[in-house]
Amino acid sequence: LLPDFLKSKVREELHQPVLTRLPFLMRYSAMNVAGVYDLCHSAVEEVSLTPGDELFSKGNSAKTMFFITGGIMEYEHPAPSLCCEVRSVEWVCEPALWLKWLYLGRLL
Known about the structure:
36% of the residues lie in helices and 18% in strands. The strands form 3 sheets. It has a 3-stranded antiparallel sheet, with no helix packed on it. It folds into 2 domains: 1-44, no CATH class; 47-108, Jelly Rolls. With 108 residues, it is an alpha+beta fold. The N and C termini lie far apart (34 Å). Helix 2 (23-31) crosses helix 3 (33-42).
């Protein structure tokens, strides 16, 4: 079992590069290293899915932004022109950080 300080460092090394893909968090990390460290420890939760699993569905309250770190997901929206693939290194649901939001489609 790893000591707590080493677990913290591993979490930071894993999550900081993912979080800073978002331009706002990249700029934030340049100004507040400790703030990004805190995000890595208090605001990140990992979710593993198998093909066909639903990450979120239309109409549910959106309280979470998601970073896709592996694989390809399918975003389904009632308007076919808004359906798309979401690939590794992309993120979805950023408005959930800033607004009261409902999911408008579903992500599989």
